[in-house]
Design a protein that fits this description.
3 helices; four-stranded antiparallel sheet; Alpha-Beta Plaits; 26% strand; alpha+beta; 118 residues
Length: 118
């Protein structure tokens, strides 16, 4: 027996956020528009790791932006139609993302998602 094909177009959103206080606000706003599944992963940028782990590159620390080096990666599979609202929420909370350290959004089309609710 053939199953009905999933006709919902989905996107995988990655949001790299330096301002960890904003993640909680973003997730709260996501819930208000019906997005109930996201994953947040703690991370560090390449420059920080290279500068601290490889002695010859330790001088890079002086070239890196000062401040909190902690990054959080928010990942979420969502319908393509909800993408504009999600990006709007992120920009409303974090600004227009044109400034260094304000965040980066990347989206990719999802060809298959198994086990998603809704």
């Amino acid at each position: 027996m053939k199953k009905a094909k999933d006709t919902i177009e989905r996107e995988l959103l990655f949001f790299f956020c330096k301002q960890h206080k904003n993640i909680e606000k973003i997730l709260s706003e996501f819930a208000k528009i019906g997005i109930s599944g996201s994953t947040v992963i703690d991370g560090h940028g390449m420059g920080e790791i290279v500068a601290s782990e490889i002695p010859v590159f330790s001088g890079l620390r002086n070239l890196l932006p000062k401040g909190d080096s902690h990054t959080e990666l928010l990942m979420c599979v969502l319908s393509k139609e909800s993408l504009p609202d999600v990006i709007s929420i992120i920009k409303d909370i974090c600004g227009d993302l044109s400034q260094p350290g304000s965040g980066v959004i990347i989206t990719l089309p999802v060809s298959r998602a198994i086990g998603l609710a809704g």
